[in-house]
Amino acid sequence: MGPDYKAAGPGRNRTRIRPQPPEHGKLKRPAIVPRKGWRFNDAMAAAALLDPSKFRDPVLTARGERRAHVVPTALETLWFNTGTLCNVTCENCYIESSPRNDRLVYLTAADVALYLDEIERERLGTREIGFTGGEPFMNPEMPAMMAAALERGYRVLVLTNAMRPMMRRTDALTALQREHGARLTMRVSLDHHTKGGHEAMRGPRSWAPALKGIGWLVTNGFTLHIASRQPPDESEAEARAHFARLFAEIGAPVDARDPRTLVLFPEMDARLDVPEITEQCWGILKRDPASVMCATSRMVVKRKGAARPSVVACTLLPYDKPFDLGPSLAGALRRPVALNHPHCARFCVLGGASCSA
Q1: What span, in angstroms and rounded, lies between the C-alpha atoms of 303 and 319?
Q2: What pLDDT does 154 receive?
Q3: Residue 28, pLDDT above cutoff 90
Q4: What is the pLDDT of residue 357?
Q5: Phi and psi torsions of 150, nearest 5°
Q6: Is the dihedral angle over the CA atoms 252, 255, 256, 262 positive or is it negative?
Q7: Bridge partners of 69?
């Protein structure tokens, strides 16, 4: 049985399963705090905690089998994490973004330009630049970073909650849309197709500002995509049907049937058990390693106190040192990625998800 979103009401009256993405190999028991007004998610409560012997060795699984790895095939998408600061604190944010989390500090337009220069110098053939956070528009140089990528001819995908930080940049965004609109996509996060479900994750008074931001993007002709989470108490078909009704009600030209324009991500919780992925799993699951996100993408981050940015293998793992591939794109593309984290299994291989457009 899934959560009762209507009963959840305001964000402070609900059960909290606080996401605490740990350092690699230091998984902890979830901190489950009952709150009045929330119907407990029995499936989550019953889920087994991760076996601590799993995901510890990059070569072998806990059973001694050869761990699957992914060899880079190209750099189709380069992501920039603009910083982990965000205007809201979501219940299940995999990166723990909040108004106080500055573990990843703001990138600058100069940082972005250096990596775009490397793409051209090394002839990496990148087609898409993605910006994520945190909330990217908290970063004061976000419009300049977008412009740097758009002016060089890249497709640009921006992940945003469409709330006040974005709305403070409307003049700059309007200019970018006018000049480069065909190559600019805004992907807005809505954690549920109802106000109650969305605010259960993102907190009270977060629904109306998000819809206002979506309305502004639609009115001004931006290409709009939506990102959400697959509700645990609905099938994918049911969730898409509910979102289709919502989009019709608010006048959003988003095809809810298209997995590219409405992205439904699987839930991620690194504390819960999931199978490790072995080399034999590719054949068993009929998956091509080249289809996994880390085969064709990398992300640039700048950690607090670091002298310069670094390249990581995955957008989901900015803090885990084993997935830090060094300062250069060329170097990062020479290293295979061991699928040595619960997210590799749950999100990418078993969930079949990707952050790219």
Answers
A1: 8
A2: 98
A3: no
A4: 65
A5: -65, -40
A6: negative
A7: 338
**Beta strands, E only, 230-312:** 262-265, 297-301, 310-312
Q: Which stretches within the chain are classed as H helix?
A: 5-8, 42-46, 109-121, 142-151, 164-167, 170-180, 195-202, 207-219, 236-250, 281-285, 329-332, 342-343
Where do runs of H (alpha helix) occur along 24-155? 42-46, 109-121, 142-151
- Residue 104 banded pLDDT, cuts 50, 70, 90: very high
- Structural domains of the chain, ranges and CATH numbers in brackets: 69-349 (3.20.20.70)
Among 41-45, 137-141, 157-161, 208-212, where is mean pLDDT lowest? 41-45
CA distances from 318 to 78, 80, 168, 302, 312 (A): 14, 11, 27, 9, 6
CB atoms within 10 A of CB 149: 27
Residues 6 or more apart in contact with residue 177 via CB below 8 angstroms: 184, 220, 221, 222
Q: Are 310 and 303 in contact (CB under 8 A)?
A: yes
d(CA 114, CA 347): 30
**Using one digit for the tens of pLDDT, what is the confidence trace for 310-355?**
999 999 999 999 999 999 999 999 999 999 999 898 888 887 767 7
- pLDDT tens-digit series, residues 146-194: 999 999 999 999 999 999 999 999 999 999 999 999 999 999 999 999 9
pLDDT(43) > 80 = no
Q: Pairing state of beta strands 184-189 and 155-160? A: parallel
Q: Rounded mean pLDDT of 265-291?
A: 89
Collect all residues with Cβ–Cβ distance below 8 Å to 45 and sequence separation of at least 6: 32
Q: How far is CA 280 from CA 10, 69, 304, in A?
A: 46, 11, 39
Whose tokens are 């670091």? That residue is: 306
For the entire predicted model, the pTM comes to: 0.85
Which position has the token pair 């289809």? 291
Contacts of 202 by beta carbon, 8 Å cutoff, 6+ apart: 11, 88, 90, 91, 161, 191, 210
Helix (H) or strand (E) holding 91: none
Q: What amino acid is encoded at 263 in this protein?
A: V
Q: 284: which residues sit within 8 A by CB, 6+ positions away?
A: none
Q: For residues 231 and 13, what is the distance between their CA atoms, to the nearest angstrom?
A: 19
> Which residues does residue 324 pair with via DSSP β-bridges, in sequence order?
312
